[in-house]
Amino acid sequence: MKLCLFERPDKPWDKLTGALVEGGVADLSPTLGIVALLGLDLRMQSLISRFNELREGCEKIAAAGPTYPDGSFRLLPPLPKPGKMLCCIGNYWEHAEREPRPLNMFLKSPDAVIGPGGTVILPPTTEPWVFQHEAELAVVIKGPAKNVSEENYADAVFGYTALIDVSARGEGRRTWRSGSWMGKSFDTFAPLGPVIVTADEIPDPNNLHVRFWNDGQLRHDYNTDDMEHRVPELIAFASGIMTLQSGDLLSCGTNHEGLGPLQDGETAEIEIERIGKMAVQVADPLKRVWERGIYMGPDSTARRPG
């Protein structure tokens, strides 16, 4: 099931919970009870925690077809404010012949989340040289989950979604001010969506095609089977450090071979097999310009002309 949050243009104050189906969206509100009345920041977390008891009703509504047809609604971020956002550093082989790097993660601000059709606003700071995109598979957690083994990783997985991990960087791939969370946590730096696909629809998260376009230029184009540390290990690692709660997000890292700059007026699109496609806009109040292109190696830089 492809779960989502959405609104109708004629009633933008009425935020609804739905399932994306062929031809539109099915409004799940009639079967959700009190969950449907919660604020957006808590609604999806509550649905995840209670999904086992609500699933049958949701499936019946979804099977009946769309309540609202395509074009009559706007998707919102499916998790407007995750409790925690854990993101892997690197985590892809990128055609290298070497030993796997140590698994490492950082926390990204939940306040950075925007949804389909939103706008990434580049901050008016002159410190970073470039703002780059990272297209990533993200795991949506079902909790509480603590000390989960790799063999039982699925117990902690509710579903999957797509994340654009926007990153402010200096030379090459060095993150702004040398702290990953700082250069990645500006407001609007976490486009998320378009939906949460429940885990039963993705039998193997390490066999999904990920693509990303910038103004129609294909940049990221890789499969998640290239992860150095696969999803079961990520769950075991993170849950061994902290308790993971329903609605937490664990992003799996990216293949950096497709990195490039984001700049004013561009349209960024991410698509992950079985999850779907979404687009966001980019705006820069300073109207900065970087050389348009793709990152090609660890010594590559993206400097402002002049």
Total helical elements: 5
State the low-pLDDT regions, or none: 296-306
* Category from helices, strands and their pairing: alpha+beta
Order of helices and strands: EEEHHHEEEEEEEEEEHEEEHEEE
Helix content: 10-25%
Strand content: 25-35%
Shape: globular
CATH homologous superfamily designation of the largest domain:
Fumarylacetoacetase-like, C-terminal domain
Return the CATH class of the largest domain: Alpha Beta
DSSP summary, beta strand count: 19
When the domains are counted, the total is: 2
The major pleated sheet works out as:
12 strands, mixed
Secondary structure layout:
Elements: E1 2-8, E2 11-21, E3 24-27, H1 29-32, H2 40-49, H3 51-63, E4 68-69, E5 74-76, E6 85-88, E7 105-107, E8 113-114, E9 119-121, E10 130-132, E11 135-141, E12 157-164, E13 167-169, H4 180-183, E14 190-198, E15 209-214, E16 217-223, H5 231-241, E17 249-251, E18 267-272, E19 276-283
Parallel strand pairs: 6-17, 8-14, 9-19
Antiparallel strand pairs: 1-2, 1-5, 1-14, 2-3, 3-4, 6-7, 10-13, 11-12, 11-17, 12-14, 15-16, 15-18, 18-19
Describe this structure in words.
By secondary structure, this protein is of the alpha+beta class. It has two domains: 2-76, no CATH class; 85-283, Fumarylacetoacetase-like, C-terminal domain (Fumarylacetoacetate hydrolase, domain 2). It is built from five helices and 19 strands. Strands 1, 2, 3, 4, 5, 6, 7, 8, 11, 12, 14 and 17 form a twelve-stranded mixed sheet that branches. Strands 9-19-18-15-16 form a five-stranded mixed sheet, with no helix packed on it. Strands 10-13 form a two-stranded antiparallel ribbon. The chain is globular, with a radius of gyration of 19 Å. The N and C termini lie far apart (50 Å). Residues 296-306 have low confidence and may be disordered.
